[in-house]
Design goal:
Helix Hairpins, 49% helix, Heat Shock Protein 90, single chain
Length: 384
């Protein structure tokens, strides 16, 4: 996998100083992409348009000095999180250091610059920046998930409240209609319960309270236990669950996580498949004999098992599949296409598969069903 070089922006009105710092950083063990600016204004423009990972700026510059540049960067939401190292051979007193830090700089280097010190400061600031960005990314994922769950729970509980109100009004007049409303209310209550279960499962995974404990798992036995557990939902939806899995097929996986993964995929299949059709669960050794790469070699060498859950429902458009595969978007069109259902289960599946160093592959087309597949290591022969 290609690793992206960190981008550094160096700002100094003295060309010689720019060249010295560039030379020092080019001799660093780490490779950088380096941008140069000979004024504060140019540095601010470059920072806004190129969004470097780190800015190193001189203090004493005409028009916009380094302190003003730092304040401008921190005042702009687009650049406010870029760390800045202040450099100066003039403003070297302790009060100058305090001024720079109060303006938003994260570090301070005195000129003439010591090569090893500059390299070490840049490396440590980039590590700090990466850690902070990862915290923000995880926080954004958390916020997205809780917003989605809140919306979904509000919808389910709101519908349940409305149905129970109608039930109270018509009970004494239309028993048949009341029974239908009871069934619908029960369905909505089950959906709300499922959302809460999913939220709990995701939170355990998100905060890594789910310890990853791989063991040998008989795939067919696990799937059959899930089919028995979901038999009421299958009967209610009038959807058959079919399996094509060898009784000898065993995988290396965390049994609780794998159960959660398969359960989510099967439930999604049942919910999106029209009555009198089926959801199919199949598994086989991977790769198949006729799967080769461009050089005519088998593409996967480790003994693996390919697992797929396939439904015959309404399917999903190609653009939505692309978003799901790329950024994990968690809103799916409902079974009828007239409303939306939160695909929280897919988010949980993605998180749990990542713990297995695997990923979910989705393939679908409108009115042709959805294929959800992933690969797990095959357990060694003879393993219990």
């Amino acid at each position: 996998m290609m690793v992206t070089k960190p981008t550094l922006l160096i700002v100094d009105n003295e060309v010689h100083n720019l060249e010295v710092m560039v030379e020092i950083l080019e001799q660093s063990p780490v490779s950088y992409r380096i941008l140069r600016a000979n004024s504060g204004e140019t540095g601010l423009h470059l920072a806004r348009h190129r969004l470097p990972d780190l800015v190193i700026t001189d203090w004493d510059m005409p028009n916009m000095n380094g302190l003003e540049l730092v304040r401008a960067l921190k005042a702009d939401p687009l650049t406010s999180l870029i760390p800045v190292i202040m450099c100066s051979g003039v403003m070297t007193r302790s009060e100058n250091l305090q001024q720079a830090l109060e303006a938003g700089a994260v570090d301070y280097v005195r000129k003439p610059v010591d090569p090893l010190e500059l390299q070490a400061r840049v490396h440590s600031m980039l590590e700090l920046s990466r850690s902070y960005q990862e915290i923000r990314r995880l926080s954004a994922r958390k916020d997205e998930m809780f917003a989605t769950v809140s919306h979904s729970l509000l919808t389910s509980v709101g519908n349940l409240h409305t149905m129970l109100g109608l039930l109270r009004e018509i009970w004494s007049h239309e028993h048949e209609q009341a029974v239908a409303l009871i069934q619908q209310s029960n369905t909505k209550a089950q959906q709300a319960l499922e959302l809460l279960k999913n939220l709990l499962a995701w939170s355990r995974c998100y905060f890594e309270a789910y310890p990853y404990q791989p063991q040998t798992v008989n795939l067919l036995a696990l799937v059959q236990s899930l089919i028995a557990e979901l038999s009421d939902l299958s009967a209610e939806r009038k959807v058959l669950i079919e399996t094509h899995i060898s009784s000898e097929l065993k995988v290396l996986a965390d049994v609780d996580m794998l159960q959660q993964i398969l359960r989510q995929l099967i439930v999604n299949g049942l919910n999106f498949t029209p009555p009198n059709q089926k959801v199919t669960i199949q598994a086989e050794l991977y790769p198949a004999k006729d799967e080769f790469d461009q050089d005519g070699q088998v593409e996967y060498f480790a003994p693996s098992v390919w697992i797929q859950v396939r439904d015959t429902g309404c399917g999903m458009p190609a653009d939505l599949i692309k978003r799901l595969n790329q950024d994990g978007s968690i809103f799916l069109p409902g079974p009828t296409g007239s409303h939306q259902t939160a695909g929280i289960g897919l988010k949980i599946v993605t998180e749990l598969l990542a713990r297995h160093h695997s990923r979910l592959e989705l393939d679908s087309a409108s009115e042709q069903g959805t294929y959800a597949s992933f690969v797990l290591p095959r357990a060694k022969k003879g393993a219990a």
